[in-house]
Amino acid sequence: MGIVIRDALAAVPGPDGIEISRHTIYVAGDLIAGIDEMPAGFSGDEVVEGRNRLVIPGLINAHTHTYMSMMRNSADDLPFMEWLFERVSPIEDQLTGEDAYWASLLSQIEMIRSGTTTFNDMQMHIHQTTKAVRESGMRAVICRGLVGDAYDREDTRLREALEEMEDGKDCSRLTFLLGPHAPYTCGPDYLRMVADTAKTMGIGIHIHLSESVTEIENMRKEHDCTPIEYAARAGVFEVPTIAAHCVQLEGEDISILARHHVSVVTNPASNMKLGNGFAPVQELLDAGVNVCLGTDGAASNNAQNMFREMSHLALIHKGWHRTPQCISAPQVFEAATSAGAKALRLNTGSIEVGKKADLAILRLDTASMMPNNNLLAALCYSADGSETDTVIIDGKIVMQNRELKTIDEEKVYAQIRRMCERLGL
Amino acid sequence: MGIVIRDALAAVPGPDGIEISRHTIYVAGDLIAGIDEMPAGFSGDEVVEGRNRLVIPGLINAHTHTYMSMMRNSADDLPFMEWLFERVSPIEDQLTGEDAYWASLLSQIEMIRSGTTTFNDMQMHIHQTTKAVRESGMRAVICRGLVGDAYDREDTRLREALEEMEDGKDCSRLTFLLGPHAPYTCGPDYLRMVADTAKTMGIGIHIHLSESVTEIENMRKEHDCTPIEYAARAGVFEVPTIAAHCVQLEGEDISILARHHVSVVTNPASNMKLGNGFAPVQELLDAGVNVCLGTDGAASNNAQNMFREMSHLALIHKGWHRTPQCISAPQVFEAATSAGAKALRLNTGSIEVGKKADLAILRLDTASMMPNNNLLAALCYSADGSETDTVIIDGKIVMQNRELKTIDEEKVYAQIRRMCERLGL
Known about the structure:
Two copies of one chain form a homodimer.
Chain A: E1 2-14, E2 17-28, E3 31-35, E4 46-49, E5 53-57, E6 59-64, H1 80-94, H2 97-113, E7 116-123, H3 128-136, E8 139-146, H4 156-167, E9 174-176, E10 179-180, H5 188-201, E11 205-209, H6 213-223, H7 227-233, E12 241-245, H8 253-259, E13 263-266, H9 268-273, H10 281-286, E14 291-293, H11 306-320, H12 329-336, H13 338-344, E15 359-363, H14 375-381, E16 388-393, E17 396-400, E18 403-404, H15 409-423
Helix pairs in contact in A: 2-3, 2-15, 11-12, 12-14
């Protein structure tokens, strides 16, 4: 099966970064097989007309917890530790695996509808996000959240993580990381054990680092170092690491991250909503750190819409540093696309021949995108995500003219309503 | 003609602020004629079913320049004065009155589609926004931007403003203010003249105040005071004033604003985008100032979507002050509805019998709004505006099931494309 996107504006890599130019794109199998040149033996069953359309690489939500959509708007306006331990955890404790499956589908509906094709998920209930991903057609990087104290290779959560990896081998849209939750929930020996395991297995690590002021204060008190130093000492950064948040960075933190090629996921809405502040994104970029973008879970955002996140990233640092010349639209777009692909080591995130065919096709004949005169800026400053018309993931159309092809939305919403009643949400 | 919105969740004033509860709302003529009780003699031609719907007061965009949608994404990432005088003004100089009419329609499409029913507009070309408003069905408060030096009651721009007011008397959806642009474009005598004229006429003033650091520095150098003090001395605050921005407040500024019952419009996206920073909204609210919310023009936002603006207002102050307990969802909702109505002295902004029937009806069966468990928070933290399904303004349906009833969108977009070509945008 092949798809032709005919004569559309597209955001493609050019000599000076991403440029918007008109192209015909050929999708064959799971790949972008040709741009303007039809590949040999191509047969296109499906034609998408490009008039008034903009094709972008599908957005990459580089840090979220899809099962947390059940907690959307049920734990607002609380300090971080109270939010986590007094509100979120008690609801989490009641969630069944099946709840997590439906809640993950809910997040995935929201993501597909707003142009996201890949997400990086830290979760609790193995086999549930993967089950939802198999159905939705999304691309996902999965880790089971790990917490513990001892150097114990037989740790239950680690065993679950490994079991899930084994099970997911047959789905090419699924890849896995190890997910030690955070320095404040993983003792130094446990963290060392997870890092050693990742090193042995040749896979990467996904971790929360330096999110709240309380985390920094406690780490100083208990270990006389920053969470970044703590993770470095435990050997975490000896494997490819994607670190969420990195809001409270001090001293040598940025240079440690840069030296170890740690990718940082910034989550502006979540960091603001929980009162954690603004991450030093400009400083991280200046130090050469690969900065990608994520929504975090819906309990602290409270959306899974990467366009909203792009607008936050494009604006808040200009406000904070009081200069309009800070975090440009091209930098925001890179954070939401190719930087995420690099961090997650996926062959996606840009429109190039040979890359996975993960594409979002947006309408340009909408008020928010008119006039169509600087579309890279429009994506970051004007679009709200509802411009997303058609989404292709791994060469398959998962949404066409805003109609989802893979998920029965009504069924998901009905199930979510039943779960809310049961959980008292 | 009457409209019944049957058995819908609605955001209505309760004893402890806005509450979400289930109601049937009767619209007769231009008013909300009954809530749960059918008014005598009511005949409902139109029934809107409330299942999976949330009715909110139409949002009030308390500061914008609708003609500026032509400059959307054509002057990004520039310092304020360069943005204004080197990029925006040269384009403005080329705009004809007819251009301003089409551009205002473009902004109005975006506003209606995202649930805004009223806007407060400062403009250059008289009769153009009003012409667009007569067609779109929106409610608008209009002022012609005034700039000058001398105390001259025969000033051309002022004469234009008065002529437009006279012309607009026949449309009940139009009201007017006087619009001295800003302290840095209005000399003290001119400002005094405008204030005196407003006082004589019994109308209010709409002005930009304390937006950029440069404005403050120049004001200190030239007049040894803050822009707030400058406006106060000129007598501006002796008439009801709605002041946009108020980002750079110092010394006695907040108490001057509070003492004179000046309404402040905060424009978070614009203030961030131009590098002006964050307005002290929490401090203004603590001082009892009526704070409302606006998008500003699309040249500095770059959207006219009040839901996006609500999310910025709800989040950035939590980030800036590093506390999640700052600017709550109810405060954000008030800023986007009833506070705007108060500032603009309009009988709208809340769902109560006797108020103008300006209503936005949102879908609750969308991923962003599920689970439906704290809808006031969902409006501020989760909604992107595209949930808006049906919009009623002044008792008339202007959008139904996302189809605009009053504006031919395709015609507007075609015209905007032609204007872009002519203007080289």
